[in-house]
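Q: Structure for this?
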Amino acid sequence: MRKAFILALIISAIGSISAASKYPLDAIPDSLKKGANAVVRDYEGEFQQTDINNGTYKCTYTVTVFNSKGDDCSFFISFQDRFRSLKSFSAVVENAETGKVLKKYSKSDLTTSSYSSTFMTDDVYSLFAYEPSVYPYTITISYENRCQNGIPSYPPFMPVEGFNIALQKAKYKITVPSDIEVKYRLGRNVHRPKVETANNRKSYEWEINNMAPVLYEAFAPENREILPMVILSPSKFCMEGQCGELTEWKKLGSWVYTINKGRDQLPDSYKEHLRQMVQNAKSDREKVDILYKHMQKTTRYVGIQLGIGGFQTMPAETVYKTGFGDCKALSNYMKSMLAAIGIPSNYIIISTKYKDVYPDLPSFYQMNHAILAVPMAKDTIWLECTSQSLPFDYAHSSIAGHQVIWISENGGELRRVRNIPTDLFAQETKVHLKLEEEGNAKLQINSQHRYEYFDNMWHRLQSLSQEEQKNNIVKRHSFSKSKIEKLSSGSDEALFPAFGLNYTMSVENLASRSGNRLFVPLTIFNGTEKSFLGTTARIQDVVIDNEQSEQNTLTIEIPDGWDVEYMPKEVETKTKFGSFDYKVTRDKNTIIVTQTYRLYGSRYPAEEAANLRQFLETVDKSEKNRLVLVKQP
Amino acid sequence: MKTLTTLKSATAVSLLLLMSVTLNAQKKFKFGDVPKEDLSMTVYPTDTAANAAVLHEEKSIDFVISDYTLVAEMKYTIRIKILKPGGLDLATQTISYQYGKNYKEDIISISGFTHNLNPTNGKIEKTKLDKQYIAENQVVGDLYVKKIAFQNAKVGSVIELKYEMRLPSFGSFRDVVFQRDIPVRYSCFTTVIPEYYIFTKNTLGYETVQYKESKESLNLHFPFGIQPCDGKGMTFEVFELPALKGDNYTWYYHDFLTRVKFELTGIRWPNGKYEDFSSTWNKVDKQLMEEESFGKQFRLTGLLKPELTKILSSDTTDLGKVEQIVSLVKNKIKWNGRVPLFVDDVKKAIKEGKGSSADMNALLISLLHEAGYNAYPVVMSVKSRGRIQAINPTIKNLSYFIVRVDIDNNIYYVDASTTYGGLNALSIDCLVDNARVIKTVPEVSEWVDLQNIQKNRVINNIIVGFNEQGILSGQYQSLRTGVEHQLLCNELEMENGIEKYKERISKDTDLEIKEFTASGNKNGSTSTKINFEFAKGGTALDADIIYLNPLIVSYMNESPFKAETRKLPVEFRYPKEYRQSVLFVIPKGYKVETLPQSDKVVFNDNGLIFAYSVKLSGEELHINQIVSLNRTVFSPQEYESLRDAYLKIVNKNTEQLVLKKIKE
């Protein structure tokens, strides 16, 4: 009892000491508060690499959170596997206004789980999510990670992980044995480090002070470009005895090549079987096609990430036995199958997230996927090996145009996946519409979808029954009551395949009738809106990754005895962002509406945003056009 | 007509054939031995789009004695045919189980096969499940999952999985769900229950479940010897269940799946003693009210005494005092986002300043009691967790509670964890058609429908005409109450909420919005008012003919029910009423060429009423529309008429007024 009393005294004493908080609210400059849901008050990360395989990372940060949208800042997650472990964790929360300590947490308060969407990994993760009772609150989190068995990458200096978070003060220091060099890439507004050498050790130190929050905007440049951060990488590393260098992509590629060498064995009987499968093929391309389809039919994606940090592929023989693997295993398996018939191919590592890699910072951190490339005499066949049904040689929208690391016995080489050609329209529609007096109509629709449109349409419809497909397709239109009569769909397997849809549809009240007039909408499809920019002043550049292009033709047969009273005017715009042509013409009882739209994939400075918006709004405005018909007396 | 009949009989014949094949297949079922016709099947006969199908599923539970306690042994077998790439997900199966200190579910054995037909020699190839590809994960706490990846599974494969699990007594008796989002050819559940245990069962869903009961004799092996007893054998079977998939406008899709629910209602011990478990709702009430983390938490006294005394001594009505008590709870405990049925710790919640909805509502009841008001807990299953099965009284059915307070013969419902609105403001998830007000003797508990405890209204008034510059302009005024008020508050209180709202409305209506004001969008108020002035370009007053939609703001431009067919009922989230009146001033120099026509749709029970009326008097055109959704559930049979009603609503909301310049 007495003990408890003393303890209580001590605690309250601590409480009153910290009531004079190190982080008073009024110490935050007003310039940082605007638009901020939270402010990182102080951040200190320190990485100590003791030798090639071992190191410790200590990090302490304090954040003041103003409202629930800033709660992400008090969320902590730590992944642990054979290479990383969490040594310590603590968190202290105080009322930001009074400085009173509200609660303290330790490592035993973490929730631990090994569950993931991946089938098999070595990962275990620990997480902590603070449930606030008051705002604003200030939370200080401290933790220590231990790295062992190899250090292929360094923890990044990333004091701000999202939007609308300001930063007061942040420091990061890394110390490494002097035979290792730290390679790094500076994010926006980060200065070069202070470098010191002493006792055979080299240290690099960064500091960032007083940064206003980066506000969220759609179509902004990548986070890694606009948030304050430093991405770091060692010049060399070992993993479980396999050593490599990260001074250039070539060397990273060599390491990948080496650890996967000899993992391409297949049983002789199977190799013979493969040779027989392609014996009648007329070209190498056809042979690759046959084996790719065979691979699609006999394997499936199962995420198994074990082994050297998840960089080594499962042996081809294992995939042969189990019929499954992750992207690395399946790409390597396909490569082995092609080798069996004497066609060389290259294992490729790629990012599905970033189109470009940092050429001067070779790092695993930038890559998240593997595919296969088969060089042919004139061009290259690109194979996505994790899909059972994508067309052959199809560079889908998360890899098309992306920079890749091309792996060969000569190491890694930066190349690019075939880009989307700009001479084909991404979407083409042809609609014939026969209008009846009461406003009902019969439509004949033919549409072709490529690139992202292909991916979307294909994902949307491929596993649905005909009835479900119809119910899904009517949602492409704004018509409240329609019925699809004949429906056929399919993809043609060209280099950039098109998903084609053909159907006839009867629509009730397509045109709205008022007295002896019919108001006919000239937009047949839904979701055609182009404008994506808000009216608030733009801060970041506008980045449009892929060109958008559409061509639509609508032919309307008007009922006998009716005449045109109003027809929308022609629009023709050509801007630096893209072009838009809109024409409505009449040929006796037929009205023809043609629409051609292009938005170039490019990057535009923020000052151009208003002009871009104006262009897009011109396009959207025409979507609201109607035709007015009047009954002849 | 004739072709139709032949078609029908052909279907009937093929169904019969299929049935007999199915029945034959059942008889012959042997694990590890798949008939060739199942391997060569390329599409499922009755559902050609199916990605996969369950060919055979068996689940049985037997009770054994282990260490003087009753333990359930569950045996499970499933055989699945993979028909399309989309069905390959099923080649990785998961088993979740609990493994804690006090409650352990042991998986005793797992085995499986993948069967393929070799395309070249037509032989069946069998791959045994390799234990290397069974992954085990701790999800969180005591909850674990085993993931099983079948080797060599591809389109066309048949996979088989078998496992045995040992569970503490009745943990096994959860719902047995037969129906899935893929077709099920055959599935059965069998069990023999020792005579001491009394269960009730309820079959739910659209499809038929065949049930057989038999008398069995059992031998329970106790350490002291064998105890023979009678048992009740139960067999549930389903044949050819169609796939059932979710759809929009449903509260909880699981409610519609064909399944059997079990509930232990009592134990009659060999010595004759009978232990009764909740078999009536009154017993559920009693059990809850005696529960440490429920009823007992409503009788706490002396909490927040100074604040309460202050409120009670204030010079306001009872209603005003209750409102202040509700605010007091909201001020003292910040909601932590959790929505449990059971109370964690009210005192701790006050101390820490945060707690769950249950903590908040329990405090509210205690305070109301202490203040001398009649307050009751109202228990329910929230919409997103499915409906209460009233015939199956059990706590397991309940997931949430709110508070009812009676003041001078008026009844109010409160959930202290809702942010916006006053008394009677509940979140949409709580607006259920069946909730139970728990009253203790001498009063009697009652069932209530919470859907209409407050009016969810949107009332729009618009005055519009052409200004001196010839631009269409006017004033918009909107009043929102009930859920509509809450939803609008949520939207406006978001980051840059007002700006985003204005932008959205401006985009939807094509109006330029000025002088925007919103009032009442704060905590505690019961309605929001929106006012703005607007202008709409693009309609030139010098044109000979002017076309425009005189409603200015449409109720809806597109029907939510575009799909031609629907299998599930349509369930709206809440009843609501939308009223709009527009005064349109015809510009000088123009006359009306065509007026929109008045129209009306009334469902026979007034479940949905739509009325649109147009009146022209002099220069003033008055348009009124009412959309009154009084019922929230419409059966699949009503879908067609609902679809037509929405077509009409959309048509009227897009209908044009035509004005013509008067020739001088």
